[in-house]
Each structure stands twice: as C-alpha cells, then as structure tokens.
C-alpha cells in the first residue's frame, strides 16, 4: 500500500532528548512511543488544521506542577478520545513538523518539565502505540503479500 500524499516519513528526527528530571516511569513509555513512530510509513504532513498539530506548540512553562497533568490530560483525551475507534485515531496521525514527531517532542518536554508520572500516561500512550504497531504489522504483511 503506497501513500498518495507527498508527506514525509513520520520518522522525521525526534531530536528532543528527555530532560534529566524525567521520571523513570515515563522514560520507558515515551521510548516505546518513539520506537513505534519510527516504524510508520510515509504519512501526510500535518497542517495547522489537523488535531495533532496542537502538539507542535511550545509547552507552557508557567503551570504549577500540581496542575500540569490537568492541563495535559484533556489534550490527550481530545486526540485519543474516549470511545474513538483505533481506525479513527490512526486516520488522524500525520507526519512532518506538526505531526507525530512534534507530539513525541512535546510529550518529552512536558513530562520532563513537570515530572509527570508515567503511570498517568501509560494507558493513553500504550493505546496509541498499539494502534501504530497494528498498522505497521498490517503494512508489512500487505507489502509481502503483493510480491
């Protein structure tokens, strides 16, 4: 299955390192997400109108640590949503500067800045990882069945 878009790979460099104060529980879940994103095929570039583009903004730097999760949680819920199907979430995934690489960078910076516990992220991020991995497996199978 080939993309008909002129998008870039979702694997555009995700250069933001994890800040040193990132909780260990969050390091693994974010590394899992980053690795999953690297397997994706070409995705259309995100535009400002795409839901995922919200993660291309700078993280807020003026939140109280106790308020940080209450800020991030609704953003993740809006994108990954309660009751949204895996297919509808996958259809919203985009690459480029405002896409998945931006989301990973945003989460790394936010989680490090506010020391968000990985247990809070795990369910949402693992769902996204599962959706990405399912698509990667399907794409690989499709590639080899068409040879």
Structural features, described:
With about 150 residues, the protein is mainly alpha-helical. It has one domain (about 25-145). Helix content is about 55%, strand content about 0%. The protein contains five helices and no strands. The chain has helices at about 25-40, 65-80, 85-90, 100-115, 120-145. Helix 1 (about 25-40) runs antiparallel to helix 4 and helix 3 (about 85-90) packs across helix 5 (about 120-145). The longest helix has 28 residues, at about 120-145. The radius of gyration is 15 Å and the shape is globular. The N and C termini lie close together (about 10 Å). Mean pLDDT is about 85; it is low at about 1-15.
User: Secondary-structure element sequence?
Assistant: HHHHH
Overall mean pLDDT stands at 84
The helix fraction, in percent, is 55-70%
Q: What is the overall shape? A: globular
Number of helices: 5
Radius of gyration based on Cα positions: 15 Å
Report the end-to-end length measured between terminal Cα atoms. Answer: 12 Å
* Number of domain units: 1
Structural class: mainly alpha
Query: What ranges have pLDDT less than 50 throughout 5 or more consecutive residues?
Result: 1-13
Q: What's the number of extended β-strand segments?
A: 0
Write the layout of secondary structure elements.
Blueprint: H1 24-38, H2 65-80, H3 86-92, H4 100-114, H5 118-145
Helix pairs in contact: 1-4, 1-5, 2-5, 3-5
